[in-house]
Design a protein that fits this description.
The protein is built from eight helices and six strands. With 223 residues, it is α+β, with helices and mostly antiparallel strands. Strands 1, 2, 3, 4, 5 and 6 form a six-stranded antiparallel sheet that branches. The chain is elongated and about 60 Å long.
Length: 223
């Protein structure tokens, strides 16, 4: 076999392999495209995106889905104006040793830094017992008790605690300290029958510049 025949044979083999791989991959790419389209159709529930087009150029939303929920739209418009604003400052609450001890009993977290004032006074760098981080987190509903969604967001039927995005405890809270919550609205996403809110809750410690806790709480407002 001379050089030209060798090259011709290799070209033929490459072409056959290319056609073979093309026949295998084309259906997969088509399937992936369809799955992506279906995923977009099933998960995009924002009624203000009715002009969004799918990959095949068709309108994602049906005529029925294009009809805006007037209540949700009105509520979202009201909430949107508050984005980035501090919407609540709570009352001061004292975290005493009894409160800390009760939390230790319930959770089983009985480290001496929380429940042994005598040892903490001598050995702790804070010279006092400190509240559990999760105690501070658990107190957020109480610290924001007067933050009534119905007052801020009229027409809401039900409010559901959907979870947390992140939580940090920048500085320990000593036993006997007073704390309060400050709430900032940082995100709002309209859904089919609800609005998902993300609030940044900062736990302020009286007389301290550093916060005791910063948490992003997620709420669903149902209408």
């Amino acid at each position: 076999m001379n050089v030209f025949e060798f090259i011709k044979e290799k070209r033929s083999g490459i072409k056959d392999n290319t056609e073979q791989y093309r026949a295998i991959l084309e259906p997969k790419f088509r399937s992936w495209s369809n799955k992506i389209n279906n995923k977009i159709i099933n998960t995009l529930n924002n009624p203000w995106m009715s002009n969004f087009k799918s990959m095949d150029g068709s309108n994602i939303f049906t005529q029925k889905e294009n009809i805006l929920n007037a209540i949700i739209k009105k509520a979202f418009d009201n909430i949107y104006q508050r984005l980035g604003a501090e919407i609540f400052i709570g009352e001061w609450e004292t975290i005493d040793q009894e409160c800390i001890n009760n939390f230790a009993d319930v959770t089983g977290d009985k480290q001496w830094i929380h429940i042994n004032p005598e040892k903490a006074k001598v050995e702790s760098p804070f010279k006092s017992t400190i509240a559990h981080g999760f105690l501070t987190l658990a107190l957020i509903p109480k610290l924001t008790d007067s933050l009534q969604p119905k007052n801020l967001y009229p027409d809401v039927r039900m409010v559901v605690n959907y979870g947390l995005n992140q939580v940090r405890f920048p500085y320990p809270i000593r036993s006997g300290a007073r704390i309060r919550a400050r709430v900032k609205l940082i995100s709002a996403v309209p859904m089919k029958n609800s609005i998902e809110l993300v609030n940044e809750v900062s736990i302020e410690v009286e007389g301290r510049s550093r916060l005791g806790c910063v948490a992003e709480t997620v709420l669903r407002l149902y209408y």
